[in-house]
Amino acid sequence: MRHVRALLADRPDFHWMRQYHDAVHYEGYQECAELVSGALPEGPVTVVGAVGTGASTGGLAQALRASGRAVRLVGVQPFGSVTFGSEQFNDPDAIIAGIGSSIPFRNVRHELYDTVHWLDFRHAMAGAVGLLRQHAVFAGLSTGAAHLVASWEAARHPERLHLVLGADTGHRYAERVFSRHAEARDMAGLRPLPIASLAELRPPWSVMEWAGRAAPPGARCADEGAAVSVSTVELTS
Predict the structure, then answer these.
(1) I need a labelling partner for 157 at 20 to 30 A (CA). Which of 19, 97, 103, 147 fits?
(2) Which part of the chain is the Tryptophan synthase beta chain-like PALP domain (predicted)?
(3) b/e for 133-148, b at 16 or more Cβ within 10 A?
């Protein structure tokens, strides 16, 4: 990292594109939002997706809102992530690949999120297996978690269109999840614990109206050079 910073100091025409901290990644979702707007009917939409770097959920929702569409943004997190304040928990089975983090990500813009769900491995597994059974979509655990959350949200808000972001395929989970499909719980019987503050957060599944709150203390970047050693949460069994 010292060498990179020395290069930047010596060559101001260089740009350090950082996946976790560079706001330029949000711009990449403008075209995606245009495609989504063209494919979906008019009206309000709820975007549901796992939050890793924050660029996919935040970037898409921000661009859709800028186009004039009413968007509710629902983020999905594992337990054990600092991003939305669940770092005090340890999921004994796993952490989810590609979502959550043990360090702050500057690209997560907390003020964009209306609602946040936290799920453990067993609930993400139920969502992934349920998605395959119901829709023949072979997707990974972060997508499965988003599917479970979106199904619950859609049952509560049937008047809204729900758009689920599926970030991962199921191939890496063939043994850890899908070969154990008989262990997966029925999605229909699963419900989250509604909470009003992070002090009430509890596994295995909690939901909170985030309502555009600022980042919790553990998710705040001290400076532009912070958080260069990255470790994301990966669900293992």
Answers:
(1) 97
(2) 2-153
(3) eeeebebbbbbbbbbb
pTM of the shown model? 0.86
Domain locations in the chain?
15-219
Query: Dihedral of CA 111/104/99/82: which sign?
Result: negative
pLDDT score at 94: 64
The beta strands (E) that lie in the chain are given as 45-50, 71-78, 115-119, 161-164, 193-195, 205-209
Phi, psi of 207 (to 5 degrees): -135, 140
Spacing of C-alpha 205 from chain mean position: 14
Q: What is the phi-psi region of residue 32: left when phi exceeds 0, alpha when psi lies from -120 to 50, beta otherwise?
A: alpha
Closest CA to 52 of 216, 168, 199, 217: 168
Question: Alpha-carbon distance 19 to 43, whole Å?
Answer: 32
Beta strand 115-119 with 205-209 is antiparallel
Domain 15-219 CATH assignment equals 3.40.50.1100: yes
Tokens of 100: 């959550």
Cα 148 to Cα 100, 151, 191, 198, distances in angstroms: 17, 5, 10, 21
Residue linked to tokens 């990255």: 230
Structure tokens at 50: 């796992």
CA distance 176 to 172: 8
In terms of C-beta density within 10 A (0-12 exposed, 13-18 middle, 19 or more buried), how is residue 51 classed?
buried
| Mean pLDDT score, 155-161 | 95
| Closest C-alpha among 216, 221, 134, 222 to residue 181 | 134
